[in-house]
Specification:
There is one protein chain. With 389 residues, the protein is an alpha+beta fold. The chain has two domains: 5-156, no CATH class; 199-387, Cathepsin B, Chain A. It is 34% helix and 26% strand. The protein has eleven helices and 18 strands. The strands form five sheets. Strands 5, 9, 13, 14, 15, 16, 17 and 18 form an eight-stranded mixed beta sheet that branches. Strands 4-3-8-7 form a four-stranded antiparallel beta sheet. It has a two-stranded parallel ribbon with strand order 1-2. Strand 3 and strand 4 form a beta hairpin. The two termini are 30 Å apart. This is ubiquitinyl hydrolase 1. One of its GO terms (biological process) is protein deubiquitination. Its EC number is 3.4.19.12. Belongs to the peptidase C19 family. It is an enzyme of class 3 (hydrolase).
Length: 389
């Protein structure tokens, strides 16, 4: 069996295509491996106190009850794990259900996997975090779903850590100072493996046209959302064209904090810290004026994407940034419908590298495809690249 498929129980292709990509994503496998011992301890507590018999929404109350009634017999580690479950119960059980699907896809023992357990747990738990719409049985965006899943995984392992600034920080360049300072303030109380190994930083630099004063804004990021630009060669639009359009210098409406000038000030965007995984969403929906008003329409133009992409020009400092394509989520149809499916390279569990062949994962249907088919999809919507070390 080359790859397990996933049953579509109704409008779940946005989930299924995402699962297939994430199962072949090195950062997901590394995340699960990093917390293997931690997961074993959590499962031991779940089994010891028979927490599996309760609904996911009841776990928090039950763990509180266990701490209250068994305070004299619990050791410090058991109490700490129970308190972690109380504080992150929804995130932990969504992670457990997600991990079960990823493991089944990796093991390839089942021809078609059923994701009904994940769906039922997600539906039960998302009401308190305002993502219940992802589990209401309608079609949704896989990009939103992936961002939701990654945030839940991060929060399931969230902890406080001590982050020290480099002793020579005053000697570093402005970009390094911004990175280290913001990293400490943002993640010291909100840390997980993702912080260093998946999330990265974007930098916005606003320069005053008059006095040349520069103002910097730093923000965490997990994916790039690029528009399809309007260029002369409409039939030959490349992913580089999209990236160049995203990172172009623009004139903005901004009042300089130093001199008060509000004319011709410009903003420049850069990637501040090198991503290990580069997720690029092609924004295919554009506003169009019609006699009935403004409406969203899909842009079906072909965007040519390379197998190897270099983003050196869009990143701060002298860094070698070559990335290799390993996954594509495709979309056919329009705004309020259509279908999602994925092309993916399998991740070798021994070497940790991607295999050469491409696989098409279309819900329960899985088959090998040629490199040409994978590299020339007009339906490409989200591209997944891994850093070449």
């Amino acid at each position: 069996m080359s790859r397990s498929g996933i049953r579509n129980n109704g409008n779940e292709c946005f989930m299924n295509s995402s699962f297939q990509i994430l199962a072949s994503s090195p950062f997901i496998q590394e995340f699960m491996s990093r917390y293997k011992t931690d997961d074993t301890k959590i499962f031991a507590i779940i089994n010891k106190f028979n927490l599996g018999k309760f609904k996911a929404v009841e776990i928090k109350e039950e763990c509180t009850k266990i701490i209250r009634e068994h305070s004299n017999s619990l050791d410090a580690k058991e109490k700490s794990i129970l308190e972690h479950i109380i504080n992150h119960s929804a995130d932990i059980f969504i992670y457990i259900a997600f991990k079960d699907i990823i493991n089944k896809l990796t093991e390839k023992k089942i021809q078609v996997i059923n994701n009904s357990l994940f769906h039922s747990i997600g539906k039960e738990l998302t009401t308190e975090i305002n993502y219940e719409h992802l589990f209401n049985g309608d079609q949704h965006d896989p990009h939103e779903f992936i961002c939701y899943i990654l945030d839940r995984l991060h929060k399931s392992k969230q902890s406080k850590v001590k982050i020290s600034l480099p002793p020579n920080i005053d000697e570093l360049d402005i970009y390094s100072k911004l990175y280290h300072t913001h990293f400490k303030s943002r993640y010291e109380n909100d840390y997980s493996y993702f912080v260093k190994n998946f999330y990265y930083y974007m930098l916005n630099c606003v320069e005053c046209f008059k006095c040349k004063n520069k103002t910097y804004e730093v923000c965490p990021n997990e994916s790039l959302c690029v528009s399809i630009p309007t260029i002369e060669s409409q039939d030959n639009i490349s992913l580089d064209d999209c990236l160049n359009d995203m990172f172009k210098v623009e004139i903005i409406d901004y009042k300089c904090e130093k001199c008060g000038n509000n004319e011709d000030n410009r903003i420049e965007k850069k990637i501040l810290s090198k991503p290990k995984t580069l997720i690029i969403k092609i924004k295919r929906y554009i506003q169009q004026n019609t006699f009935m008003g403004v409406r969203l329409v899909k842009n079906n133009k072909m965007v040519y994407y390379p197998e190897i992409i270099n983003i050196n020009q869009h990143i701060c400092g002298q860094k070698s940034c070559n990335y290799e394509l390993y996954g594509i989520i495709n979309h056919t149809g329009g705004l309020n419908g259509g279908h999602y499916y994925s092309f993916v390279k399998e991740l070798d569990s021994i070497t940790g590298k991607h295999k050469e062949n491409w696989i098409s994962c279309n819900d329960s249907r899985v088959n090998n495809i040629t490199d040409q088919e994978a590299m020339t999809s007009q339906n490409a919507y989200i591209l997944f690249y891994n850093l070449i070390q």
